[in-house]
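Q: Given only this backbone (435 positions), what sequence would you predict?
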């Protein structure tokens, strides 16, 4: 898996220098996509092709080979070092015309994706956060006022002994902004989910620090997510861990604080695949079911529940399956079906959310889907109580529900709705039983 930082922004926003510093500090490969468009422009100009003549440009595209040598910070066009030449005024003045051609963009976007493959990279340009890598791990839009950008270029030119007038630079940047933002393909737009940084009043180092902080936070988040999805192999240590968690939590927490009691526990068979479906009243209920059962109950839980390390440790000891409800979590679905196939006892909250019943929310069809796809029986469970400290909690199990007549109908919406209704009405009955 590669880690991708994408930075877009207008000319002179400092992307280039900032990207290079961050690449070095964070050990990332840096890719300047503007240099690629500049290479094509240089080739076109050298061939004497009018930069407005898109047809002729498209015809010579196959003759162009671009290599960015990151180590030596050099750019090669057909094996020739053109690092300095691509920065000439002539190239700069014509690059927006060339970079507006769809075929040029298709070729270079493909090249950009290719050079980034399987690498940890930081890539800067105009369309990196929107077209090249819309799913980049970190997306930044780096901006600065036109005046500030012209000032920076003016100073840069002075330092390099290049004569230029501030007014001319200002006008040139304005024109480039307009061209960059009004291209039909690959225009510079601010991606909705990109982090916006205005560097007008910031030094390069301040911007670098800001972005590095964002990258570090993202890496930390990825690491936590990876840990959530990492499954420990079965063995004596895991069994011991689960037994300890169950005993400890029952003796020191669930019994003294909630006087937790299981009713009709015998309705949970000692072996074989079953799905326990319960009402969801509190974040402590899944673990209560896990700890009060002799069999390992593998709950399907929101992956955010794993963010708390101590809680995650307990959940993981029971092979709890993390699920990301904001996306179609294929990984979770695979684990659930695999678990049922190997005879696991699964736990699902059909309500999806806590206190869904109280809020009058329609239960989700997830539990029904797995029951119909796997042909496994559902054990309804009514959780009585609110998990307010020192109030009673009762876990009332129902008889297993057999949905074999619906087996294989997991794609039939009516069948799913019907089964969900049956499961939920059984749960509701159990939440009232013996009251
Ligand atoms: O970042 P730069 O000034 O070197 O970019 C040169 C030109 O290339 C600029 O006018 C915009 C264009 N460009 C682009 O269209 N898409 C990119 N991803 C990068 C640059």
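A: Predicted residues:
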């Amino acid at each position: 898996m590669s880690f991708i930082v994408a930075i877009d922004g207008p000319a002179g926003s400092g992307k280039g220098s900032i990207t290079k510093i961050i690449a070095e500090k964070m050990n990332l490969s840096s890719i300047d996509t503007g240099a690629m468009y500049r290479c094509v422009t240089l080739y076109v100009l050298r061939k004497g092709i009018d930069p407005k003549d898109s047809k002729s440009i498209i015809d010579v595209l196959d003759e162009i080979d671009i290599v960015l040598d990151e180590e030596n910070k050099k750019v090669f066009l057909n094996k020739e070092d053109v690092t300095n030449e691509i920065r000439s005024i002539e190239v700069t003045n014509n690059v927006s015309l060339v970079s507006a051609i769809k075929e040029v963009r298709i070729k270079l976007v493909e090249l950009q994706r290719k050079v980034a493959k399987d690498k940890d990279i930081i890539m800067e340009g105009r369309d990196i956060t929107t077209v090249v890598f819309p799913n980049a791990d970190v997306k930044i839009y780096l901006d600065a006022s036109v005046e500030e950008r012209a000032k920076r270029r003016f100073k840069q030119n002075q330092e390099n002994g290049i004569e230029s007038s501030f007014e001319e630079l200002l006008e040139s940047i304005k024109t480039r902004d307009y061209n960059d933002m009004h291209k039909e393909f690959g225009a510079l737009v601010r991606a909705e989910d990109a982090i916006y940084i205005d560097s007008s009043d910031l030094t390069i180092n301040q911007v670098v620090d800001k972005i590095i902080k964002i990258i570090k936070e993202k890496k930390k988040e990825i690491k936590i997510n990876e840990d959530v999805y990492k499954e420990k192999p079965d063995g004596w240590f895991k069994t011991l861990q689960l037994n300890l968690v169950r005993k400890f939590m029952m003796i020191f927490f669930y019994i003294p604080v909630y006087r937790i009691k299981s009713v009709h526990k015998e309705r949970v068979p000692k072996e074989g695949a079953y799905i326990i479906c319960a009402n969801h009243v509190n974040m402590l209920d899944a673990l209560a079911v896990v700890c009060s059962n002799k069999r390992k109950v593998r709950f399907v839980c929101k992956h955010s529940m794993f963010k708390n390390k101590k809680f995650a440790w307990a959940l993981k000891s029971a092979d709890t399956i993390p699920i990301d409800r904001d996306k179609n979590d294929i990984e979770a679905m695979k684990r659930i079906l695999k678990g049922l196939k190997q005879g696991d006892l699964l736990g699902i909250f059909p309500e999806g959310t806590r206190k869904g019943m109280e809020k009058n929310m329609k239960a989700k069809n997830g539990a029904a889907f797995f029951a119909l796809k796997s042909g496994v029986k559902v054990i309804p469970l009514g959780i009585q109580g609110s998990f307010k400290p020192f109030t009673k909690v009762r876990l009332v199990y129902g008889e297993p529900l057999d949905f074999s007549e619906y087996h294989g109908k997991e794609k039939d919406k009516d069948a799913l709705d019907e089964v969900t209704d049956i499961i939920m009405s059984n749960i509701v009955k159990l939440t009232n039983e013996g009251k």
